[in-house]
Amino acid sequence: MAYQGGGYYQDPNQAYYGGQYPQQPGYNPNYPPQQPGYPPQQPGYPSGGYIPGYPPQQPGYPPQPGYPPQPGFVQPPPAMPGAYGAAYDPETGSVKGFEFNDQSIRRGFIRKVYSILTVQLAITLGFITLFLYHRPTKLWVQNHPEMFWIALGVMVVTLISMACCGDVRRKAPMNFIFLTLFTLAQAFLLGVTTANFSSQEVMLAVGITAAVCLGLTLFAFQTKWDFTVMGGILFVAVLILMLFGLIAIFFPGKTITLVYASAGALIFSIYLVYDTQLMLGGEHKYSISPEEYIFAALNLYLDIVNIFLYILTIIGASRD
């Protein structure tokens, strides 16, 4: 009721308050019609809100947590943490953050690398001995200088192929074929080079090189210093050594030869420690993948050969 003009009257809007609104003209409660084939509501379906445990579990479903394994499914073995790491660089053959957590993997890899290196050094020492003590061989090489250039070409081609092409140094037997050709060519060049020195000088250089390499290897195994972070510094040092060698060609002399050879022996001695720690992995920042055993043996072999050549140059220059 509302008061108006001194009296009360009934408001038509309040007549329906709390009651039922009258049906509008044309309203059809059965519209839209039910689609044919529409499934009727299942009994027990919740009319509102979430009911825990609904729908009920189907009979026969395994109660184990997790998804049930399919027939014939074999659970793969768990991966070894850190066994195969990330950020592999195919150009340099190194892996950042790679670690050997399994001692058997590390020992097997190191054993394989040093086995290959031992065979390489044995072949090289055999060529050096042949050129030093077998005079007909030395005379034959002196009469055929083209053999030197052929060996040099084979060495350069095989070295670039193994250093730049990852498939060449990883896939067997191609990697062993290229490494064998490189070792034979390098050993031949070393034999020709050592033929210009006396046997006493060469044997002295071999002994000093063996002692230096053994000491550096033991140092690389036990030291806490990480030499694997010095790759950039060593690369710059080698470039400076190459420029210094070009200058030494135009200004020959005993003093500049001794300085050049001493600097080269020092740089490649550090390189030997660097490559050894790359092979070891473990706590070092950078390391080489176990698949790169040919690359690791090649690096160590080149380090030892360069140390030998520079030591031989120092001995020859000091006795000249």
UniProtKB/TrEMBL annotation:
Signal peptide: none annotated. This is AGAP005529-PA. Keywords: Membrane, Transmembrane, Transmembrane helix. The chain crosses the membrane at residues 113-135, 147-164, 176-196, 202-221, 233-251, 257-274, 294-317. It is found in: Membrane. Belongs to the BI1 family. It comes from Anopheles gambiae (African malaria mosquito). Residues 12-29 have a biased composition (Low complexity). One of its GO terms (cellular component) is membrane. Residues 30-43, 53-72 have a biased composition (Pro residues). InterPro entries: Bax_inhibitor_1-related (IPR006214). It comes from the Eukaryota. The lineage of its organism: Eukaryota, Metazoa, Ecdysozoa, Arthropoda, Hexapoda. It is a multi-pass membrane protein. Residues 1-72 are annotated as: Disordered. PANTHER family: BAX INHIBITOR-RELATED, TRANSMEMBRANE BAX INHIBITOR MOTIF CONTAINING 7. GO terms for molecular function: calcium channel activity.
